[in-house]
Amino acid sequence: MPKQNVLKLIIFSDLHYLDQNHSEQYNRKLTHLAIPLLEHLTSKINDEIRPDACIYLGDLIEDTNNHDRDIKNLKYIFRKLQEIEVPLYVVPGNHDLRSMDSRKEWEAISETGSATFSVDLKGYHLVFLGLDVRNNLGNDEGGILKTQYISEADLEWLKKDLQSNKKTCLLFHHYGIANDDMTDNWWFADCPRNALLVNRNEVKEIIEKEGVIGVFSGHQHWTKRLFEQGINYFVVGSISENSNGNGVPDGIYLEVELGDKTVNVVEKHIELI
Predict the structure, then answer these.
(1) What three-state secondary structure class fits 62?
(2) Phi, psi of 216 (to 5 degrees)
(3) Alpha helices of 91-215 — where are they, by DSSP H?
(4) What residues contact residue 110 under an 8 Å CB cut-off, 6+ apart?
């Protein structure tokens, strides 16, 4: 039996672009370095790494809770992302949707058609889960409260999509899905509920039955690997996070190789000169 093709991916998350760095509250998120970080990574992707695809796990912008300004910033970032010369797949984050009444505006800007979709690439099946927007829950906590769910329609879609798939599968989403202890997490130690997808158990019930071998998420602003019920869960830190408090961004991204039902992940960091 021939060996399966190797699929090479670059995965990054939580850029938090802001059109101006106007408040001390952003001293943990180096929003003013979002564009230099993205441009540096884009150059590495185009000129050195040349992966099969690039995947972004949400929070393109640091929202301002101002609809028109957030739309403007999202459009700008999507234009910058178009400079990446390999296939690019993006899921929305809570900050991307905070000031919106639904995800339809995000979908129009991203030109994906839907924030929940799947693609087949080099013999593998890649699934991207978008967020539900529940305006009745309010837009506090950076939009977390209103976006912390997968809709019933998307759950049904996920079940049918995976049941019809025979390929090795990875899943990508913004919020954490695996159980995770938020002790010592700078952002979520005092509010661990905000770190994870609320109806994650419904997602896990589906993917544990249908052969998903790896799940990638962002949002938590730290990087770790978790393991549940035969599935590897990879949490990807924020590329613009200033975790050391020294004004230097973490610059984190992952180089991932998928082959023969194994997921090999190497943590990398951008160094701005």
Answers:
(1) coil
(2) -120, 135
(3) 94-97, 104-110, 144-147, 152-163, 200-207
(4) 78, 90, 92
Rounded to whole angstroms, how far apart are CA atoms 258 and 30? Answer: 31
- The identity of residue 195, as a single letter, is A
CA distances to 27, 98, 217 from 143, in Å:
20, 4, 17
Q: How many C-beta atoms surround the C-beta of residue 126 within 10 A?
A: 24
What is the predicted pLDDT for the residue at 4? Answer: 64
pLDDT at site 21: 55
Q: What is the pTM of this model?
A: 0.95
Enter the tokens of residue 62: 């640091």
Q: What is the largest CA-CA distance in the chain?
A: 58
Over its C-alpha atoms, the chain yields an Rg (Å, rounded) of 17
Q: What is the 3-state secondary structure (H, E, C) of 200-258?
A: HHHHHHHHCCCCEEEEEECCCCCCEEEEECCEEEEECCCCCECCCCCCCCCCEEEEEEE
How does the average pLDDT of the chain come out, rounded?
A: 93
Q: What is the sign of the dihedral through the CA atoms of 126, 195, 254 and 19?
A: positive
CB atoms within 10 A of CB 103: 21
Give me 108's structure tokens: 């129009």
